[in-house]
């Protein structure tokens, strides 16, 4: 969850990030995936984002990962390039020269040499993530950022090996996955947006996303992280309800053997259990629930396990705070 808290604009972790993530680890979150972290300065969504392109950023990440591991939490980093949605970029880039909305600048259409440079940026960030000791890299292929822009039949209007057919639109992601897989032996995830809230002819169909999922599995991805939206300034075209994105995770599960995670309005512990027990998804990710309540895991534990917190795993003072009046 982007905190947009890098006031110095240097892409380095700040005390706010340490406080935020360590508090969630104290709250017994099993795996924390750090917010979208840019592989290059112009790949940041805003200039207040985290980055992973230099040594100072890598050292601070290693320190945070070490502390989080000491608290028993696994750590992931989400690697991103924002493409045409990089609001503060010197030169926003994209597959083609279409802007995201009239409020955004027109992006520069990447040359093939520049695309190779971005793949190299992802490779280099993966090396840095390895040096920092992270357990998971989550490639941000969703929410209308650069990889999602390439995958789209609407935003990607290229007539070269990186555009045209679905397989060619997938080429950038394929090269990024391959490069990261060569540098990183931990768990490699990819987040995808499985609908753009457009009519069916203006976006990849679910069967096309299932093919992308199968290619990702073949390329060595360990988990698919199913999300939606972000390519256009459009909201869901159906009433948003608890677990509204889980049906997309279930669709992917039908196509692959690797686990698929779900996210989106899943802060009701009973509903989470229902989704898991009915094999609608293999893993649940919590976003806003953990912004609201760093002790959400304890809340879920209380709700699901006979209203009895596991005293031995939870910090003793937090335990008393949750249980005593
Ligand atoms: C403040 C905020 C920051 C977010 N930052 C990210 C991000 O860095 N990477 C990402 O993939 N999704 C990001 N999202 C989307 C969430 O990860 C999540 O998919 C979405 O909020 C729905 O899940 P939830 O109902 O559990 O919050 C962000 C959402 C919010 C509200």
UniProtKB/TrEMBL annotation:
Coiled coil, from the record: none
Cofactor(s) needed: FMN
Gene3D superfamilies: Aldolase class I (3.20.20.70)
Annotated keywords: Flavoprotein, FMN, NADP, Oxidoreductase
Superkingdom, taxonomy of origin: Bacteria
A molecular-function term among this protein's GO annotations: FMN binding
Residue ranges of domain NADH:flavin oxidoreductase/NADH oxidase N-terminal in the record: 1-302
SUPFAM superfamilies attached to this UniProt entry: FMN-linked oxidoreductases
Protein's name according to its UniProt entry: NADPH dehydrogenase
Organism: Levilactobacillus acidifarinae DSM 19394 = JCM 15949
